[in-house]
Write a structure and sequence with these properties.
Belongs to the arginase family. The protein has helices at 24-27, 48-52, 62-70, 94-110, 124-141, 173-184, 202-210, 226-238, 270-281, 303-315, and strands spanning 29-30, 39-45, 81-88, 114-119, 150-155, 189-195, 214-217, 242-248, 286-292. It has 319 residues and is α/β, with parallel strands linked by helices. The protein starts with 23 loop residues before the first helix and ends with a helix. Bound molecules: N-(iminomethyl)-L-glutamic acid and manganese (II) ion (MN) (2 copies). The site of N-(iminomethyl)-L-glutamic acid (NIG) has 10 residues, from loops.
Length: 319
């Protein structure tokens, strides 16, 4: 039984008198045990990983800021959307918060929902993947169950492949996942789109090459290359049964996303990110998504929160 009382207070906004003028705040419902399947938003209020990674803290406040911004966007969906509450990271207890998120996601997936996690620093990614992995593990145990082929698509200026033996943080989640895949005998399929060469050391590029990561740097993604990158992404997706999409908002240029720990001097504009996300959205394979690194302390005019809310809106348009 779900005993958490879900705080619906961020879901407030403009109310238009005309018919057919609904917004998210008028449609989203608190998740209940008997809710029909739909999109389930769950917050991960953590910046412990950012703190450990020498970043600017504040992302723990992001889930609430994101809900408040999404609240006012127009509702164009058919299927229901739910607020599934928050997982909080208390102090430096990151590992237990990631475990807790994993368990909550596993339950949401078992119930047939499509979870979207509102981070939180990018340490959210390890918890998101854990939830999906535990959900899929049960299917693998069935007779003839094969190792699941999970494709991770990360829009990010950073690989986040730092060595977790030096301590896990917002800079290590995909290295932690690679390790977990190795231990389980699962393939590790990772695409990192929007990487900044200036912001990732040679060691990180080498690790990405060793892990056969599909890499497209920030400057490589532009109007003239977009069609080719869509094709690259489609080819990546063909070899996966399930997709986990993770969006680190620092993939956007600093003018579009100033409210992050590490703003991007170059970045990849929302106008280029959206068509790529559409490929993932429409693939029929998307199981879990998260959006990371919003830091309301450094936002300007709510720009970053608006970009994040629009991405969620875009991602769930057909769901
Ligand atoms: N999740 C963020 N990861 C980046 C942060 C870079 C920075 O703070 O400058 C990383 O570890 O590379
Ligand atoms: Mn990043
Ligand atoms: Mn990141």
């Amino acid at each position: 039984m779900n005993i958490e009382v879900i705080d619906m207070s961020p879901w407030a906004g403009r109310e238009d008198p005309e018919p057919d003028s609904l917004r998210w705040h008028q449609c989203i419902r608190p998740l209940a045990d008997d809710s029909p399947t739909g999109v389930a938003l769950i917050g991960f209020a953590s910046d412990a990983g950012v703190a450990r990674n020498q970043g600017r803290i504040g992302a723990a406040a992001a889930p609430r800021a994101l809900r408040k911004t999404l609240a006012n966007l127009a509702w164009h969906r058919q299927a229901p959307a739910y607020d599934a509450g928050d997982v909080h990271c208390h102090g430096n207890a990151l590992e237990s918060a990631q475990e807790h998120l994993g368990k909550r996601l596993e339950r949401l997936l078992d119930a047939g929902h499509q979870p979207i996690v509102l981070g939180g620093g990018h340490e959210v990614a390890y918890g998101s993947w854990l939830g999906l992995a535990r959900h899929l593990e049960k299917q693998q145990r069935e007779p003839d169950g094969l190792a699941p082929r999970i494709g991770i698509v990360n829009f990010d200026a950073h690989f986040d492949l730092r060595d977790p033996r030096r301590g896990s943080s917002s800079g290590t989640p995909f290295a932690q996942i690679a390790q977990q895949c190795d231990e389980r005998g699962w393939p590790f399929h990772y695409a990192c789109l929007g990487v900044s060469r200036a912001s990732n050391t040679r060691a990180l590029f080498e690790r990405a090459a060793e892990l056969d990561v599909l890499v497209r740097e920030d400057h490589e993604i532009n109007r003239t290359t977009l069609d080719a990158i869509v094709l690259d992404l489609e080819r990546f997706i063909v070899h996966c049964d399930h997709l986990y999409l993770t969006i680190d908002l620092d993939v956007l240029p600093a003018c579009e996303a100033p409210g992050v720990s590490a703003p991007a001097a170059h970045g990849v504009s929302l106008t280029l990110i959206e068509p790529l996300i559409k490929v993932i959205r429409d693939s029929g394979k998307l199981r879990v998504a998260d959006i990371a690194e919003l830091n309301p302390n450094f936002d300007i005019d709510g720009r970053t929160a608006k970009a994040a809310a629009r991405l969620i809106h875009h991602l769930t348009l057909n769901a």
